[in-house]
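User
Here is a favour to ask of a fellow structure person. I am asking you to supply a protein in sequence and C-alpha cell form. Please set it down just below, with no commentary around it:

Assistant
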Amino acid sequence: MSLGQTILGLLEAHPRHGYDIKRAYDAHFAQGRSLHYGQVYSTLSRLLKYGLVEVEGVEPGDGPERKRYAITNAGITDVNRWLVTPEDPEPYLQNTLYTKVVLALLTGRSAHDLLDTQRTQHLCRMRELTRRKEEGDLVDSLVCDHALFHLDADLRWLELTADRLDDLTAKVTADYE
C-alpha cells in the first residue's frame, strides 16, 4: 500500500491535521500496526514538496503550531490515478522460505525439519487469524481472510516442496558442486 496515496485519499474528504490523519489511518488500515507520527509528517512534507497537498491553516496548540493539510487538484489527480491502476500480482518467485530450504540442503541441515517447523508456525498463525476473524467485525474478517488465503497457499507450497525434496536435493547439490 502506498502511504502517500493513502494519506491523499484520507485528505480528499476534508482537510485534516497530521494527528487526525494518523488516527484515521490507524482506524481503517493499521490492523495492529499503527502508523508512526514521523511517517505521517515526513510523508506530508514530501506531498507538500510535490504540490499534492497544501497547508490550509495553522492553529496554536499546546506544543508546536498545528498545521491543517488539504489535498490539491494535483493530489486528487494523483490519488485517482493510483486508485484506478491495477496492482501487479506479486508471484513471490524466490521468497525467504525457498531460500531457507535451499540453504538447508546446501549446508547439510534438515530441510524436512525446516518445512515441519514452518508448517507449525503457519498453522498457529492461521488459528490466531481465525479467532480474530470470528471475534471481529466485517473489516477484520476481510483482512483475516486475505491473510488466511495467503497462508493456505504457503502451506500448499510447503507440502509440495516436502514431496519434491529428494528431487530438489539432487538438483541443488548437483548445481552447487
